[in-house]
Amino acid sequence: MNETPHTLGSAPTLWDLVDRRARCTPDRPVLLQGERRLTFGELRSRAERVAAGLYAMGVRPGTVVAWQLPTRVETVLLSFALARLGAVQSPVIPFYRDREVGFALRESRAEFFAVPGVWRGHDHTEMARRLGAKGIFEAYDGSALPDGDPSTLPAPPAEGASVRWIYWTSGTTSDPKGVLHTDRSLIAGGSCLAHALRLTADDVGSIAFPYAHIGGLDYLVMLLLYGFPAVLFEHFALPDALAEYRRHGVTVAGGSTAFYSLFLAEQRRQPREKLIPTLRLLAGGGAPKPPEVYHAVVREMGVQLTHGYGMTEVPMITMGDPEDTAENLATTEGRPPRGMEIRIADGEVRLRGEAVCRGYLDPAQTAAAFDAEGFLRTGDLGHVTPSGHLVLTGRLKDVIIRKGENISAKEIEDLLATHPLVADAAVIGLPDADRGELVCAVVEQAPGVQELTLSAVVSHLRAGGLSVHKLPERLEVVAALPRNEALRKVLKYRLRERFS
């Protein structure tokens, strides 16, 4: 059987993708982790056995099952076993603790909760019991996964339009939002991502971020559509992870801007040798990318970099094309795929298309998030170029208002990234009696370099053409910017709390 990605992509459910790929290339690997190797055929057969074990436990189509598991083969097997049953699954980032986990369990009304036991020094089973979770079971390794006879299973789900996924926004400033997705919306996101990156069956990918992030399932959709494997990293740290990238011949790596910077910093420690000999592409999204990061990666690592724009509500909005111009790849988020409508309303990016979520668990949040024509309000500011590329200029909530003038934090951050002594930077507005807000630059510097001064920063920004009214009035130098544990986004609310 020789199916193309297009015909595989016509599958109405995620389980259809698994089944068709297993029939098409059963012996090709799909997951690589350490010495472990799982083929597409084994993914289908083992996921069915786990599904049968779950069915014997009482999991039925529509049953809500939450899971908080690290990026492991078992986690992928469990998620596709639940997809085989047509259960509603609620992935929770494994680094979350009582507040976020308790909220997710309560709001989703989860009837079962899969945990890894003690993982990285934290007892998830004890936390689950403390939170009053129902149906707790451990699913860290193969021997712990439920197991059963696939002949006992009911028929797989026949359609992919029902809500079967509840993902959670980061909740960095308030309670998380439960985002409702269908198999079809996730397939739409993953298929568009694979097409935009021009991946082939000869590629070897990598998942260095939590599989519980919406990007994890979208990545698996890519593997199923194009029939190539990915290396899983339970814990990502450089230089330790390099051996796995090299051993498996990874051709595509990344995750977010922070990952690009980590690879780049490691390359600079050995500038005469290619960091990963087989690597041809860094790709990701989830956080803004300064143009200088693009140019430095291409120049110093000798690989292409394509950056995209996505969010929990819409995992694939735009993506850079590896064959696009350097200018577009450096300064834009790429173009939307066919079927994704972008509208700019009062400077805000709004979206409509098949990859857009169905809304939120809270109906009031859903009503507030969509406009009268069904476009999702993203809260991001931007514009579309004549060539159809999207340029993001900041967040509605990340605009600094100084003496009545709107200032984009992102514009200043992009210029700060070009300073040779700046490893990373975040720009925030702080309350000020005279100005309303003042501009504060928070800079992360590498150990051992000369410490920056405010006058040096201002001179650099002036030389870069920044308007006088946008220049920072305050500089804070930190050893490390606070970040979340998923895609390592900078947590600006913590900076505001610290420096206000």
From TrEMBL:
<dbReference type="Pfam" id="PF00501">
    <property type="entry name" value="AMP-binding"/>
</dbReference>
<feature type="domain" description="AMP-binding enzyme C-terminal">
    <location>
        <begin position="411"/>
        <end position="484"/>
    </location>
</feature>
<dbReference type="GO" id="GO:0031956">
    <property type="term" value="F:medium-chain fatty acid-CoA ligase activity"/>
</dbReference>
<dbReference type="Pfam" id="PF13193">
    <property type="entry name" value="AMP-binding_C"/>
</dbReference>
<dbReference type="InterPro" id="IPR000873">
    <property type="entry name" value="AMP-dep_synth/lig_dom"/>
</dbReference>
<feature type="domain" description="AMP-dependent synthetase/ligase">
    <location>
        <begin position="19"/>
        <end position="361"/>
    </location>
</feature>
<keyword id="KW-0436">Ligase</keyword>
<protein>
    <submittedName>
        <fullName>Cyclohexanecarboxylate-CoA ligase</fullName>
    </submittedName>
</protein>
<dbReference type="InterPro" id="IPR042099">
    <property type="entry name" value="ANL_N_sf"/>
</dbReference>
<dbReference type="InterPro" id="IPR020845">
    <property type="entry name" value="AMP-binding_CS"/>
</dbReference>
<dbReference type="GO" id="GO:0006631">
    <property type="term" value="P:fatty acid metabolic process"/>
</dbReference>
<dbReference type="InterPro" id="IPR025110">
    <property type="entry name" value="AMP-bd_C"/>
</dbReference>
<comment type="similarity">
    <text>Belongs to the ATP-dependent AMP-binding enzyme family.</text>
</comment>
<dbReference type="InterPro" id="IPR045851">
    <property type="entry name" value="AMP-bd_C_sf"/>
</dbReference>
